[in-house]
Design goal:
CATH architecture of the largest domain: 3-Layer(aba) Sandwich
Radius of gyration: 22 Å
Strand content: 15-25%
Strand order of the largest sheet: 3-2-1-4-5-10-9-6-7-8
CATH class of the largest domain: Alpha Beta
Structural class: alpha/beta
Shape: elongated
CATH superfamily of the largest domain: HUPs
Number of helices: 9
Distance between the termini: 30 Å
Largest sheet: 10 strands, mixed
Number of strands: 10
Order of helices and strands: EHEHEHEHEEHEHEHEHHE
Helix content: 40-55%
Length: 299
């Protein structure tokens, strides 16, 4: 199901709606981005198929003569379940559409797809300007110490900016750019300097070094900050604050974010190999779990 009354050639802001409590905030942040950058808004709901229906194993516990009838009943139940899921998804999309319209989006696009969200996002990737999704789906809302089961896979699969929402919507006024000199960090600096999304914001450019007591390390951190500062200083309407911190990056950034009431953090995602992250732990996952405000991730 897709509302495509108006065809758009430019890239759009895509919001994943799944019925979780955070879906309203996902919709609100997507609306905010779409309005700031002048992009169309698309609302996506996916119907994920269960690999094994919960009743499918019952057929082995009865006589052969009854299996055929039971399988017919199970098929009907599964069809009814699919119809209910489709209807539920349509209601979610309609609610999100009305919410977006009330916030000033004239013609939000809605689409409902079958299959995994990751597959849908890969299919739609070329059309995405920014992807907005919740840190946890409806099935994992109470597991605050974890991220959604498919979130990491989706972040790795899509090479587009991804805003991960973890709290109620608040119009951002301050951002923190976590900078380490990596390719993704350089991309973040360029994006912040050029995008109308951040015009008028206060930008905290933060570099965390494991050991700034070492003179060489401290000097390198200062050089990194200076290089990025020069780019950001040229951005129109951006108030720049720089900070050099020492310690574990995830802990220092989260503490800085809370201390300075940062509304939105921008950083690179998954810059190391899977093996390295398995051995040392993923910085991106730690930030997703521990941060209290939305994260805009760049690959």
């Amino acid at each position: 199901m897709e509302n495509t009354q108006q065809k758009h050639t430019q890239q759009l802001v895509l919001a994943c709606i799944d019925g979780s409590a955070i879906s309203s905030a996902v919709c609100d942040y997507a609306v905010w981005i779409a309005q700031r950058v002048g992009a169309p808004l698309k609302l996506l709901h996916n119907i994920e198929h269960q690999e094994t229906p919960v009743t499918s194993d019952l057929t082995g516990n009865i006589g052969l003569g009854s299996q055929e009838h039971l399988l017919e009943d199970l098929t009907k139940l599964e069809q009814q379940r699919s119809k209910l899921l489709m209807q539920q998804g349509k209601l979610m999309l309609e609610t999100a559409k009305q919410r977006a319209q009330q916030s000033g989006i004239a013609d939000p696009i809605t689409v409902q797809r079958h299959g995994s969200v990751a597959e849908s996002l890969i299919d739609l990737e070329d059309d995405i300007h920014v992807l907005v999704l919740g840190v946890r789906g409806a099935d994992h809302e109470k597991q605050q110490e974890k991220i959604g089961s498919h979130l990491e896979m989706m972040i790795r699969a899509i090479h587009r900016p991804i805003l991960v929402v973890n709290d109620e919507f608040k119009t951002p006024e301050t951002i923190m750019l976590a900078y380490d000199g990596s390719e993704a960090a350089e991309k973040a600096v360029d994006m912040v300097a050029k995008s109308p999304l951040y015009k008028g914001f206060t930008c905290h450019l933060v570099c965390v070094n494991k050991n700034t007591e070492n003179a060489e390390n401290a000097e390198n951190a200062d050089k990194l900050l200076q290089q990025a500062s020069e780019k950001l200083a040229k951005a129109s309407g951006l108030t720049l604050i720089t900070a050099s911190l020492s310690g574990k990056a995830d802990q220092e950034l989260c503490a800085y974010q809370e201390k300075h009431a940062i509304d939105l953090t921008i950083m690179g995602a998954f810059s190391h190999t899977r093996l390295r992250e398995m051995l040392l732990g993923s910085f991106t996952v730690k930030m997703l779990v521990n941060t209290k405000k939305p994260l805009l991730l760049l690959r």
